[in-house]
Amino acid sequence: MKSFGFSIYPGLDESWREKEHWMKAAVQKGARRVFTSLHIPESDFALVREEFKALCSRADAYSLELVADIGPVTLRALGLDVHSVGRLKDWGCSGVRVDYGYSEEEICQISRNGKLKLVLNASTISREECKALREKGLVIENTEAWHNFYPRPETGLSAEFVRRQNRDLKEMGISRIGAFIPGAKGRRAPLYEGLPTLEEHRGCEGRQAAAELFYRDEVDEVLIGDPDDDMALIDTLSVLVRDVIPLRVKELERSYDWSDWWGLEHKNRPDPSPCVIRSGLMRGKRVPAGVALPRRKGAVTVDNEKYGRYMGELHICKTDLPADEKTQVIGQVIPEDLPLLSLLGPGQRFCFEVVRDK
């Protein structure tokens, strides 16, 4: 099952308390996790400790699972160690992500704490290391793996590497894997260059980044890395986790009421065409013939009465096609969402968001 979450950084993002209304709204939209880090060099740790406890309490009140990135130094600063880390649950923390600084034995000990979920570093762990952890008693049922995010430009991962890591981890018994996308508005200090897992996602929209992680890169959980409060991105994530890909379109044909087609949740046929994405949900509904227009990549079309039994069938063009008097061009997928068409495989569900001209 797909899920999503967001990030807050106590000691670095001092405005998080002002976003409580947004946190509540995100939970209502289906947000499941909130991520934070307790070892950011630029943060004030005295403030981190105080703010972390407050954040844990707030996450618990909203039924959010809070996962904290920890290291040996920060754990000691909280008065805890690998044997007592479970006490974080009493604060409202639900899981810990371990990075550098822990031995295999210590990681296994954390996995046996009985209260907190253990999250491994999916970007750095190897098959051999995962196998060694299992042999030393890792509680695999209590273990997930999340990739790093990369603040510095040019240092993020490739999609090919992420897919390979994900497949290896799942073969080793890790059932859930997470990754990060950059925020739509807020960017985290000190570089303000976004916090993506994949380098290719640094400059792209969050909806594309999330859709590609979910539907191309075999990721189960997507988290917004930056401390962003953009509700539009949360809305998109809430659709993507339902196994539906939303496409923004501009309506081109208004001489007929196409609301029945725009308002449906469609499903690509299980026997896909290389030319078009097909939905037969409205096949049979009468559609009068109109002006034939060229069909560019991303054109949304509906077959008219001249196509006989195909009348009413909806297509999205995967490539440029010539005008056809038997088909009406009713809309156009906006350029920013054209990359999503490659994710609409056999049986994939999709819906439309009609973009109105301002």
Domain count, please report it. Answer: 2
What low-confidence regions span 5 or more consecutive residues with pLDDT below 50? none
Strand content: 15-25%
CATH fold-level name of the largest domain:
TIM Barrel
- Give me the Rg, rounded: 23 Å
Q: What is the SS-derived class?
A: alpha/beta
What is the residue-averaged pLDDT?
94
Query: In one word, what is the shape?
Result: elongated
* CATH-defined superfamily of the largest domain: Aldolase class I
Order of helices and strands: EHEHEHHEHEHEHEHEHEHEEEEEE
Q: Report how far apart the termini are.
A: 37 Å
Give helix % range. Answer: 25-40%
Level-2 CATH architecture of the largest domain: Alpha-Beta Barrel
| Spatial ordering of strands, largest sheet | 1-2-3-4-5-6-7-8
By DSSP (H or I, 4+ residues per run), the number of helices equals 10
